[in-house]
Amino acid sequence: MRYEGQIYRPPGEWRSYLLQCTVGCTHNKCTFCGMYKTKKFHIRPMKEIIEDIAMARAYYGAENVDKVFLCDGDAIVMRQEQLLQILEALYAAFPNLRQVTTYAGTRSTMTKSQEQLNELRKAGLTRAYLGVESGWDELLLKVNKGVTSAQMIQATDMIKEAGMDLWLMVILGLAGPGEPSKKHIQETIRVLNRMQAQHVSCLSYMPEPNSPMYQDVKSGKFKLITAREYLEETRALVEGLNYGPFHFTSNHASNYVPLKGTLPDDREKFLAMLDSALEGKSRIRGEHTRAL
Ligand code: SF4
Predict the structure, then answer these.
(1) pLDDT digits (tens, 9 = 90+) for 183-240
(2) How many whole angstroms separate alpha carbon 26 and alpha carbon 221?
(3) In this structure, is residue 240 part of a structural domain?
């Protein structure tokens, strides 16, 4: 249970044991992301990882860990035999373990063959979180995501084919206001409808001080969208996602109207909540209470 640098995890992993397997992110070039800018990517020595698992067992108690999240940015990139060894050690240490999850970057996922992903799922890697951010290729290029929407679709197809639970994240407001905002959401709907993940989470873009885009916001080169435009983007997304049932959340601290439920079942309820906020009939989260 030793950690190098600041640790990030998806909100839903708040009660998981966080096992740091890699440090940083293999890509680390997205202009909106400040999470790992101070870290140089490396894989922790296996000896330390295995020791950490023993330390966690002693600290939490063998019976008390049922979920584990593998940190940092894309632990799935580790060598196959290393991941298998970690999964084996985790399930041996914690008899009640039922879920092991990780961030899975598109490129890191595609370093694996379909057979390897199947093998990881069988060994107990149950869920992959993948940051789509946007389905608009022009925007992906602009923010230096390093992958195209077609590559992301390929990676998510592989994750789903392996039988892992797929959780996608998108960033509202990432294109700025006006026509780019519309194009961002239109293309994101296209890609999400194609990927058909079991979970979709929306965050609202907030400038992270460590990130290159933060400077663009400060200098006025990048314009943030208004609260109204965030609500319109969310509304368009809720209306445009046409598969299901799947778990949809827009309840991150950065969002103006917290939504959490199942689509399509909750579509009308969500649209009514968003319309009410757009018409000024219900309150939205104040700027001072929004957080990264
Ligand atoms: S958004 Fe993901 S891939 Fe991009 S730099 Fe941040 S952690 Fe790495």
Answers:
(1) 999 999 999 999 999 999 999 999 999 899 999 999 999 999 999 999 999 999 999 9
(2) 27
(3) yes
Closest C-alpha residue for ligand 1 atom 7:
73
Q: How many domains does the chain have?
A: 1
Would you give the DSSP letter of residue 133? Answer: E
Atom of ligand 1 nearest to the CA of 29: 5
Q: What residues make up the domain containing 264?
A: 11-289
Judge whether 51 lies within some domain: yes
CB-based pocket (< 6 A), ligand 1: 25, 27-28, 30, 33, 35-36, 73, 105, 131
Q: How many angstroms separate the CA atoms of 94 and 61, rounded? A: 8
Q: What is the pLDDT of residue 287?
A: 60
Atom of ligand 1 nearest to the CA of 72: 7
Dihedral Cα 22, 100, 198, 120, nearest 10 deg: 80
Model's pTM, two decimal places? 0.95
Q: Tally Cβ neighbours within 10 Å of residue 50.
A: 15
3 state DSSP class of 29: coil
Asked whether residue 112 is domain-assigned, the answer is yes
- Residues 6+ positions from 102 with CB-CB distance below 8 Å: 69, 70, 74, 75, 76, 125, 127, 128, 129
Query: What's the CATH code of the domain at 116?
Result: 3.20.20.70
CB atoms within 10 A of CB 38: 10
DSSP state of 146: S
Residue 69, helix vs strand vs coil: strand
Instruction: State how far the alpha carbon of 25 is from the alpha carbons of 75, 187, 232, in Å.
Output: 9, 26, 32
How much is the average pLDDT of 139-164? 98
Distances (CA, A) of 98 to 87, 92, 131, 216, 234: 11, 12, 23, 43, 33
**Can the peptide bond before residue 212 be classed as cis, meaning omega within 30 degrees of 0?**
no
> From atom 4 of ligand 1, which residue's Cα is the shortest distance away?
30
